[in-house]
Amino acid sequence: VYSYFQTKKDIVRAFCEDELEYTRSEITAKTNPDSPLKDQLMIIFMAEFRHVTRNSEFGRLYLQEKVFPREHHSQEDLEIQNRYFEMLYPIYEKAQKRGELSSDLELLHISGHFYALYLLVVSCWYNGMIPTEEIAASMELLLLQTIDGLKPQTN
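The structure assignment produced for this chain is given below.
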């Protein structure tokens, strides 16, 4: 592996790029832009879950570097992160237009809400609290609870 990649960071970066492409292909193949927000997020987060847990030890390293990096992200890392947001933001904007999310919420903050739920579910999988066969149901329940709480108030 180190004959192809010079550093551990390069390996993680390649894994990030692969995950992003895999997630994009999943959302393109399994949904359309007018699908409900929950359905699109389920496709994204379940694709990420499958990708990360394919090799649980490497997935753990990847998540650690992604969420709690040892050093500041490089320009390449930030570009990967921006591509991730470029995939998510249009989904959130359409959900806002459809009334699924309040239109006064910042897209970055919306991303934070949903990604925190994903991290919770993945962490619970790693520590054995949620078995693999219950991951999708757990993720869906958390997404629905959050979406219902983020909907605009109707009078």
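Interim note for the steering committee: Helices lie at 8-30, 37-53, 56-67, 75-97, 107-126, 135-150. The two ends are 59 Å apart (CA to CA).
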